[in-house]
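Q: I'm writing up a methods section and want to include an example of the input and output format. Could you take the sequence below and give the corresponding predicted structure tokens, formatted cleanly so I can copy it straight into the document?
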Amino acid sequence: MPKRVRPYGSAVDAESAALARSRSRGGAVQAGDVASMMTACAIASQAADAVRALNQLTSDSADSAGLDDVREVIASLQRMSQDLPRLCEQLARMLVVQCEDGQITPRPGQDPDFWVAEAVEALAAAGRAADMLTAALAQAGKTSAELRSLSAGRLCGVDLDRDRLAQRLPDR
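A: Here is the clean output for your methods example:
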């Protein structure tokens, strides 16, 4: 059975964080409660399935999707990618803690510290790449917001009907 994720360094840290959360809640149900009932593996699998389904849906309906749909998907992907660097950092921390606690058993002739350091470095690179993804999606969101003027007969601030000379387009 998969182990439940402890995003903090130790059981004491996790318990302290849980107590702090329960005190600040005051009995209210939060969206994070759903996540506490699932394993990290199950949530990651659902996220991968959702991206696959989104790819399928967008390839099937490329002609029928509106600009607002595209902008909303960009915004949702940006929100998702904002949390990926933190997730990569937490996964790296979990590997380090498990290695320090002796929970990672080396294969004959292997140094687990070396492989954990390699994995931590790769997760740090993934976190940096996720930061770049977030920035690119933010730019895509800003740029796609400018496309709204297209429906009014304008493209990039140029009136296509009145500025034909500046664009060197022949009059019709």
